[in-house]
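quick one, 563 residues, struct below
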Amino acid sequence: MSRMYRLIRIAVLSALALAVVPVAPLGAGATDDEATVLHVLNRVAYGPRPGDIARVKAMGVTAYIEAQLAPETIDDSRVDEALLRFPTLTMTTAELSAKYYRPLDQAQRAARAAAAKADPAMAAGTPPDPKNQTPEERMLRQGAQSVLQNLAQARLVRAVNSERQLNEVLVDFWFNHFNVYAQKGAVNEYLNEYERDAIRPYVLGHFRDMLGAVAHSPAMLFYLDNFQSVDPNMSAREQDQRLKQQQQRLNNPRARITPQQREEQMARLEQAKKNMPKGINENYARELMELHTLGVDGGYTQNDVQEMARVFTGWTIDQPRGGGRFTFKPEWHDPNTKTILGQTITGHSGVDGMREGERALGILARSPKTAHHIAYQLSQRFVSDTPPATLVDRAADVFVKTDGNLREVMRTILESPEFFSVEAYNAQIKTPLDFVVSAARATGATLVNAGPMVQALRNNFGMPLYGCQPPTGYKTTADAWVNTGALLNRMNFGLSLVSSQPRATGATIRTLAPDTSEATRTRLIAETLAGRISPSTAETLAQAQSAPQLIALLLGSPEFQKR
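---
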């Protein structure tokens, strides 16, 4: 076993021993000492970059927090310029569909038809062997995959490089709160707009606005199957009649469409028959109350879930697998009166039926149960895995009094005595995303290429961006991420970051650690951990035989795993 890996082993065992033991700060309260500054940078931001501790200490912790609460006032033009490398970020779902997804879908359909023609025994729906893909198919597939890859890389570029750090931390929080899974059906086609238009604009706005944007998002409608939810009393004959009318139009020889267009529309018609809604789907209604608003102990019943599902019948997507947008179908909606949480929602027919859903969202957004649920989750993310009830209650009260103003709720949390208490310092463990981003920031990376970090989160850490399958999102508490294998992966990532990936990440190794001298170690520890490490960590760092090894050991230290 090499000397480096003996050191890694020692560091991992130390990290396991100390992972959940908080280290008391130099002083409690909103002071400007280095320990307090580090605490703020680890919670409000994704950790310090070289020089950040000194910079924030000079401007003052309170001023830094206030600036982060107003991201619109912070110049982030360097990040905006870096994001120009990802042109898909600004495209609409319809544009992405036309350029990437539909051409791939057509090529795959043609390949299946050709395979079935060559071998009649092969079912037409059987996907062809990937080994037999034509260069055109391969290029189209790579183009479609690049959309999600661009989105993931852009998320990391922002997280590492943005000056609007709180905004980026909150984008991760709220996407996780309103989680959707990229690999379910056509969800990946809608992710770009979902994060850009339904999450990002509202993270410091009003909760009701974000709740509404999510409810109208095709990504959420598809993920939780509400796009197929219809009034069960809707006549099956009406559905059949509409399909027959479409079939007749396609079979009309005088229709001005090309044979290829007819074939494509016939294929969509067959798919529409398979996807024909069977009745009410309760998935969205349940998660809307359990996860998005009231919480699992929010006092709702199964009857409330059923009534809520009736409210949202007809909220769908005009072309679910064709880059479509939200639409309300009155003919799918249950127009009868509903009762939710003891409140009567008068039924409406026609286009007015959508007003029922808007009223239901308002009832949920303004419920004290929702205020408490959101206050608890935000306090858990920013203060403690088990947040103090006093803080949760105050934050919930602000939520109610300000009609869900998330900026004011965050101000209450970040300026609270509980946030600055001794118990809160170093009391949380970084999630894999927190760790990867904070490690890159600690090295001064400018993130030329985020691809290796995206792959590491997917392949090594079990936390792929946009890859959490259940609607609960990823757990953010220590019990989900503290184990020997996970900590060893963190150490290996740190070594890779400073040895094999500096060109990709832009890590400034020579500037950070020109050597392994005591002076270099002291400065590195001061800039990364505010000078506060245990004797065992200091002993481990002193054994580093190269600058990359020194930085890797620091990134793998018990102290760096905490926030």
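Residues 236-274 form one domain.
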